[in-house]
Amino acid sequence: MGAPCALLAASLLLLSCAARACSDIMLSNPDIFEDAVVSARNYDFFDQTADNVGIARVATGTPLARLPVNGCELSPFNGQKAKFGFVCMNILNPQVADEVTKLCPNANMQAGVNYPGVCQDGMNTAGLSVGSLTEQSAGNFPTALNGTAPALNWYDITNFLLSEYATVEEIKKDFEPGKLQLVANNAFLAGIGAAGEIIATRKLHWALHDSTGASAVIEIPADGSRPWIVRDNRLGVLTNTPQLPAHEAAYASWRAGRLAVLPPAEAAVSFVGFCGSLISDALTNVTNDNCNSLSRFTILAQLKESLYDGQANGTMAGGIPNTWYNLNPGYNTTATHQAMMQTILFLNWVTIPGTWPVSNFTGAEEMTILYVRTAAQPNWARYDVEALAEVPGLKNVPLATIQGTQVPFAKEETEALM
What we know:
Helices cover 25% and strands 19% of the residues. It is α+β, with helices and mostly antiparallel strands. Helix 8 crosses helix 10 (296-304). An eight-stranded antiparallel sheet has the order 11-10-9-6-5-4-3-15. A five-stranded antiparallel sheet has the order 12-1-2-13-14, with helices on one face. The chain has twelve helices and 15 strands. The protein has one domain (3-417): Penicillin V Acylase, Chain A. Pfam families: CBAH. Keywords: Hydrolase, Signal.
């Protein structure tokens, strides 16, 4: 395998494992956020200083290149202009664009010009946010059986949804087998050796949230009954394991009281729900998990349905232990800020200076993205990202080059965003 192919293969491995044990949550409540939507997403074991990780900002009307779909066949969506501008966190922009163009010259993919990279998550100007998560079980990506439907590469789904749709309801109507093919095991990927094997080891699923407060999940049914399915996500949270109905049932059981009391020792020493064993089984609960933890889905769902009471002891409705919280009550003066602080506390494993919550699970390889939509413009709250309207075309910024601009948002700045 040549050096460029080896680099791409290694990068695809990063793509497969980057989202390990990640979580996704959407907060949208007219009483709290007025007309804004907050979508937060964390990545565990993620190298945030890597040169191949960046931010893509795509303006409305930008023609976008798409990955080839069958060998070097161009997707019918190739060159289609973005209906909505968007911001996305991406991987592999230069590597994929360069390597694919070498193998398939007709693709003419240019990083930072017409290709936004492999978008992992993002938000568009209509307030739609999309996040891709890996499933922690081996399995091949599905390929559509209906060869007459327009085809889209698996890794372009996130940027496709962000550029084409405003609401979850629109996606539910269009994103059906028979109307669209999703293709992943393409010749140009399989042809670079190890990368083809890497691709076949993980499946993806997607969290969808929009400005109306609607949420959904695109996932692959375990029974193989169809290539994929779009499920309504009433709770608006998601983890690595799809199986949304099983998650919802487990959460309902916990809410009914059967799993309401956590072992005191566990509550005192751990952020319950982020135990290592949950990486492999996000559905475990206190009855059979060797870490005595509730599932991350249940924890996030409880967060979503609870409100911080603003007291110094950090209590939470529903019996969540006080020891989970390290909030500065002085900065929890508004409902909006309280909810954002809670979200960051649960999803952010990076120490942020100043008055922000600090987690014991800090490390240079971990990061959280918090998207905030306000005035029809998405912002990436971890960094000072320019407004889309001020950035014509497509602009790519390597994450490593903007580490120095990272600043925590103070209370006043947060409220101004909202």
